[in-house]
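Weekly structure sync - notes
Attendees: PM, LS, DV (DV joined late)
Agenda: review two folding runs queued last week.

Item 1: First target. Sequence and structure tokens pasted below for the record.
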Amino acid sequence: MSPRFWPIFATAILLAAPAAARLSAPEQTMIQTVDSEQQRTLSMLETWVNQNSGSQNVPGVEAVAKMLRAELEPLGFKVDWIDARNTGRAGHIVARHKGNGRGKRMLLIGHLDTVFEPDSPFQTWERKGDRGVGPGAGDDKGGMAVMIAALRAMKAAGTLKAADITVVLTGDEEDAGDPIEVARKPLIDAGKWADVALDFEGLAQKQGKDMGSIARRSSDSWTVTVTGRTGHSSGVMHPAFGANYELARIIDAFRRELPEDKLTFNVGLVGGGASADLDAGRIRLNATGKTNIIAATAVARGDLRALTPEQIARTKAKMQAIVGQSLPGTKAEISFDAGGYPPMAPTDGSLALLARLNRVNADLELEPMGELDPMERGAGDISFVAQDTDGLVGLGPAGAGSHAPGESVDIPSISRQAKRAAILMSRLAKEKR
């Protein structure tokens, strides 16, 4: 064999053969702690799930926050409640653990709220074999359960003492407060402090395998509003086309001219006619019209998701150019909502974090985690700190049916993820800044 192939051969051998476990004594203690406390963790999660904390249920979010405070303070965290009623939401937990100041500063991200408000029929925890079913069971009360289980394991092993960690648990991740720059300020400030961000939302899986995530796409909303010269339908196209034809032209041009890798643009709401009025929340549209009247107004709303700020800017410019090419007798405008979620573009630093996690996997004799395509993941809070720090997404448990009645968490994945997180954080705490 030629020497130039030796590195390739060696890599193939390493990938093909199971790695021998190389866990330190403290790491073995962490494993044992997670296993011995599994029932405690599940009971804790059940209690959280049975407390409704829909994003707009201020007392409910505050109640869950008190439960998290009761877990974090005994671990040595200084826990602050950041009131956010000025944004229309309850608030956030910011908890700080002061270590020795020498290792990586870690930001742990989760959220207290769920999509299920008090009027939802889906309210309580139910155990079904290896699944726990309930509102927020996976997103994100299951993620917070993994976080607490990992931190308790570190405490038991003595590795938490040296770790500099800030935990931010937002109370409005599912329905952000307004203005969003105020709602996300505590998280953004923590991101500027941190060297590493670890997001405890759900573990991604593909074809039954756990996946690592180092990128999330943005989430922005847009509105196209069209006005047209109205009149009797016999005069349509001679020369005026009316608002509906113009809106159809715009939407079809988006479909044909905008596509590129990692970009999506959904059209979620459309209406037009003699009148077309959006409600105050811009989620309902009342349209009137007759077949013999040229449409006077038309409206469409949708979203835009991209991987980088450059891609967002490029796409918005294309959309504005398309909207500006109005058909005769029509005028169209496009606006972009304030308060969107920024993207989390992949970085070399985040890829290196995934490599560290895969070293943990090797030492635990778990399969390596491949890199998830960001097209397969939605937007999230970690994106607000992505410009300041590298990060990993999906340290929470696996689950199914997120955001819908029947949402569930895969119970065995809770302990698997807690072990991964505890060892990863303990090792990062020993890395020099």
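Item 2: Second target, run right after the first with the same settings.
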Amino acid sequence: MSRIAGRFGRVEPRATARAYLLGLLSSVERKNCWQLAEQAGHTRPGPMQRLLRYARWDADAVRDDLRAYAAEHLGADGGVLVVDETGFLKKGRSSAGVQRQYTGTAGRIENTQVGVFLALVTSRGRAWIDRRLYLPEHSWANDPERRTAAGIPETVQFATKPRLAAEMITAALDAGITASWVTGDEAYGQDLQLRAALEARGTGYVMAAACSMRVRINHGRTLVRADTVVGRLPTTAWQQHSAGNGAKGPRYYDWAWIQTGTDDHRHLLIRRNPSTGELAFYLCWSPTEVPLSELVRVAGVRWSVEECFRAAKGQVGLDHYQVRNWTAWHRHITLAMLALTALAADAAPQQSADTHQPARSRDPITLTVPEIRRLLAAVFNPPAVPAARLLHWSNWRRRHQATARRSHYRRRTRWIVHETVLEY
């Protein structure tokens, strides 16, 4: 809080932001404004709601502080920037950017908002350092009425997800984030402009690619599908390497690489599961020649983003918000990222260890994000809540729900009457 306090011009939103962050770190079941206000000892959710919607503070400036904090505490050689997206399932059509679209969160097309995120991963830990809310072109970017209702600034225009990723990567590198590599899934690996922008900056990448991606082999003379290359590789081309530790130890795969283009800086990396034979492909470029083991390391970093999303949603309520406004979305997401980054920084080891060797010491493992959250909740947990306060919030919630129900019934009744009149 001392780092971001200057971003709040008044003491009231500053104190509310502190209470909001502590609420995100607490054991509250659902981390929305109602329950966070109750946890903080407020008599109504108004201050929390004003913090997200109307209070004067700049979420992007807090994001900059968060990014600097992450670099300061997690910075190490060999850093990797990981870009990925996640969906936020919603009902209705009023939440900024919501529409029926595919989301990996549900594994199918759902009514959802999609956020594009950028993470910093080093040997000392991992944390989200930037975010963008994807604004669909036809249903939102070109609809002035919906934009105004959702509070979307006029300066925000349509941008593809790879374009949003490129903006975040550029901002992070310009801000001094030390990262030699970028990685992402197929949605970003297939974007030629994103790959070209990284090459122009001299930043290496290991991007997932579809099996149908066409690459040039034989010093650029032959254009073939990526999966066709596999059948031409001799047995000696495959090497076994660990892609990093998983829940059950090192994750070993068979790996092969083949030069693409006309120089030694561009490769097609192929991963094969030794048990199932499943294949995965990566387009790679590096400003200097690197060994196969380095490309494998970067490719293996991508799994950590899923862990980041699980921690952000499960530990600090990244997806627990109940806001529809563009500004409110970015403010909640930023505060949730800040809470998670603070935990990740606390959990960061002072020096990196060999991740491929089992621990021999009887000392406990390094503090995890859930364990640090439990300790913080124990330290900052307010005294036992009086019965009067419990009853107050119970009455408040039920009154609010009754009002919402009456409004819903009135709208439904008006709609039925309107349809009946049209039939006659």
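Discussion on item 2: Confidence is low (pLDDT under 50) at residues 351-359.
Action: LS to circulate a short write-up before next sync.
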